[in-house]
């Protein structure tokens, strides 16, 4: 019998790739998952600390963006264009 909980098994099945990017008070998570229909999608989550350092329990604000397989190429092209533009300035 597998010693992992049902939640751990579901998480492992859905999560195919994960990358964490720490940027000051923000943390970005880029995750590749598989839908129930077996299609890939990407989630980009921004987590930002919104509480003061004096608070015992920190509070975080999260924003999540879902990118679906049919939009990967368009999103990648637009992001590359934006990065290229900023590199020229």
Could you explain how this protein is built, in words?
By secondary structure, the protein is of the alpha+beta class. It has one domain: Nuclear Transport Factor 2, Chain: A, CATH 3.10.450.700. 29% of the residues lie in helices and 42% in strands. The chain has 2 helices and 4 strands. β1 and β2 (26-34) form a beta hairpin. The longest helix is centred in the C-terminal third of the chain and has 17 residues, at 72-88. The N and C termini lie far apart (58 Å). The model has no long low-confidence stretch (mean pLDDT 87).
Write the layout of secondary structure elements.
Blueprint: H1 6-14, E1 15-23, E2 26-34, E3 40-49, E4 60-68, H2 72-88
Antiparallel strand pairs: 1-2, 2-3, 3-4
What distinguishing features does this structure have?
alpha+beta, 89 residues, Nuclear Transport Factor 2, Chain: A, 4 strands
How is this structure best summarized?
The protein has a single domain (6-88), classed as Roll (Nuclear Transport Factor 2, Chain: A).
